[in-house]
Design goal:
single chain; alpha+beta; four-stranded antiparallel sheet; two-stranded antiparallel ribbon; 2 helices; 6 strands; 27% strand; globular; RuBisCO_ssu_sf; carbon dioxide fixation; RuBisCO_ssu; RuBisCO_ssu_dom
Length: 144
């Protein structure tokens, strides 16, 4: 399974040079960049942990790339994303968001179906990763 989330979700994984180009684009548009990580990538989980503070007042992507590498070193089996925020008047929203790190093995999701009133069927997603406690969700099977 390969998680598809963010702006470039249907492209192959971005190289560090391509990540740097996207960060440069965000900085040229005066969008502050932040780095976030999680081990629960459910589509409705919008509250990821922040890696440090948002990176304001940068002109070059080198500082952001260094922080991405530090986050990858600290959390190699987590999902890590870069988010650029457009704070311009009238917008004030996420302008760009994409994954820069994923675990080597993604267990995927289970589609759970349940019956509701009037014979309706309700579907929900259950990530297999959440069967393990937080921080141990993407450990190799031998280590669990």
């Amino acid at each position: 399974m390969y998680l598809r989330q963010g702006t470039f979700s249907h492209l192959p994984e971005l190289t560090d040079a391509e990540i740097g180009a996207q960060v440069r684009y965000a900085l040229l548009n005066n969008w502050p960049v932040s780095i976030e990580y999680t081990d629960d990538p459910h589509p409705r989980n919008v509250y990821w942990e922040m890696w440090g503070l948002p990176l304001f007042d940068l002109d070059e992507p080198d500082g952001v790339l260094a922080e991405i590498e530090a986050c990858r070193a600290a959390f190699p089996r987590y999902y890590i994303r870069v988010t650029a925020y457009d704070a311009s008047y009238g917008r004030q929203t996420t302008a760009l968001s994409f994954l820069v790190n994923q675990p080597a093995d993604e267990p995927g999701f289970r589609l759970a179906r349940s019956d509701s009133q009037d014979r309706r069927q309700v579907y929900s997603l259950h990530p297999y990763a959440t069967d393990a406690p937080s921080g141990e969700r993407y450990e190799p099977e031998a280590r669990r």
